[in-house]
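The data are quoted verbatim for completeness:
=====
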Amino acid sequence: MDKLTRQYVELTEVDRALAQTREQLERYPALLARLEKQVEQAGAAIAEAEAELERARRDRRQAEKEVETLRERISKYLLQQTQVKTNKEYEAITHEIEATRTRIDEWETRGLEYLELEDQAAERKRGSEAEVVRLREELGRERERIEGLMAEKREAVARLEEEKRQRLAALAPDEAEDYELLNNRNPGSAAVAVQQGHCGGCNWALVPHTQQQVRQGTEPVRCEHCRRFLYEPA
């Protein structure tokens, strides 16, 4: 491999590492955002459970109020029974008492159902609160870990950028310009290995003469199709 092609290959390796490191840096905020979303969803579950709990409490209190009202009505009916003068009136009041007791049973059953809903909502709320605590702790640990990784990656980017600057400075201006034009079009793959007679970048089938030039390695050779620099793999 000639010197210039080797310089292009080494530059490509630096740019490939740069592209990979920058891609990793871009992914980290998304990882944190997903965890933050989970915390937000768990918080919403708490609010939903609280709303269900309040509805169940309100409905249970209403059921208890209805039962109290109906019991007072029965007390009035019983008092009226002591004041009636005919069996017909007595039986009519008895019928009302029985109907009212049936309604009491219905409201008491509803009250028990609402109480069960209260318990279930309270349990969901406790579970969601515990989940929020767990997720927040996990988010804190993950944020610390990712921020450390991001700092490392930023340092790596700075080192790679400096290495690239030095390698470009070692080239003639036109050679550096050729490389940068290619790298801008094909980040991290301005120089590619020939693979089974094809360009390792665009997979173009190389003519035999081009393959021979690459094998000889006396000067830079470019793909006829994508114009990437070619080299013989080790």
Observations:
- The chain has a mean pLDDT of 94.
- DSSP finds four helices and four strands in the chain.
